[in-house]
Amino acid sequence: QVHLAESGGGLVQPGMSLTLSCLAPDDSFNGNALAWFRQAPGSGREFVAAISWTGSSTTYADSLKGRFLISRDNAKNTVNLQMSNLKPEDTAIYYCAAKTTLRRTMNLPTQEKEYNHWGHGTQVTVSS
To answer: Which residue, among 88, 113, 110, 91, has the nearest Cα to 101 in the 3D structure?
Structure first.
């Protein structure tokens, strides 16, 4: 069952920036950790970034630190992913996910199995 709706994907040139957004219903958003994952062609889904329910704590895949920034707007039920200096290897389907099984915790899982609400994903293609 899909709970989340990603948007903002597209085709960009290397070195450019792109911001993804994810709109979530109250039961997916409120009090829950949210995350972004991505899946490149022929690969499994990998962790990108996560943010706590308060927005005060974040964690990132080591390889993406400094280029990607996750944030959430609790008034709009959205979580965003700002991506800068994009590279061809960033090409993937990007998914938004929520962990609703343990609410109001600062724990930020990085494993896919920890998240139980997902969106359909949005395609990001980085190519010249």
So the answer is: 113
Average pLDDT of the segment spanning 55-71: 96
Amino acid at 63: S
Token readout for 34 is 């949210």
Q: Which residues, in sequence order, are bridge partners of residue 36? A: 49, 96
Collect all residues with Cβ–Cβ distance below 8 Å to 55 and sequence separation of at least 6: 71, 72, 74
Rg of the chain over all Cα atoms, to the nearest angstrom: 13
**Distance (Å, whole) CA 2 – CA 23:** 12
Buried b (16+ CB within 10 A) or exposed e, 42-79: eeebebbbbbbbeeeebbbbeebeeebbbebeeeebbb
Name the residue among 92, 110, 118 with its Cα closest to residue 39.
92
> For residue 1, is pLDDT > 70?
no
Across 31-53, average pLDDT: 95
